[in-house]
Specification:
Blueprint: H1 6-14, H2 19-29, H3 39-54, H4 61-73, E1 77-78, E2 95-96
Parallel strand pairs: 1-2
């Protein structure tokens, strides 16, 4: 089963300019249940980001929130985003190539 973080859903849909494409992608993604993010997820994301920054690894807050959620639930991350390339060295994130 595939899960989807609400932030990722929004990012994917935000990129579409055509209402037709928006509706089509939403229809494809709608069966994926949302992955609920809790306060501990947000705290873990902030802690991981701070630890990574201290070691010279940068990334956006949302990238670390996605990472923390994947680590919390034990899910791999399917991504083509190179921002995630160095994060797995500092946590239990497993990335899958696209």
């Amino acid at each position: 089963m595939q899960f989807l973080i609400g932030t990722i859903l929004q990012e994917l849909l935000d990129e579409l300019r055509s209402p037709k494409h928006f509706d089509h992608l939403f229809t494809l993604l709608d069966p994926c249940p949302p992955l609920e993010l809790t306060r501990p997820t947000h705290v873990a994301a902030a802690r991981l980001r701070a630890n990574c920054r201290a070691k010279g690894v940068s990334g956006g807050a949302i990238d670390f929130l996605i990472t923390a959620a994947c680590c919390q639930y034990g899910f791999p991350l399917l991504t083509a985003d190179q921002d995630f390339a160095h994060i797995p060295r500092h946590c239990h994130l497993v990335t899958l190539p696209t």
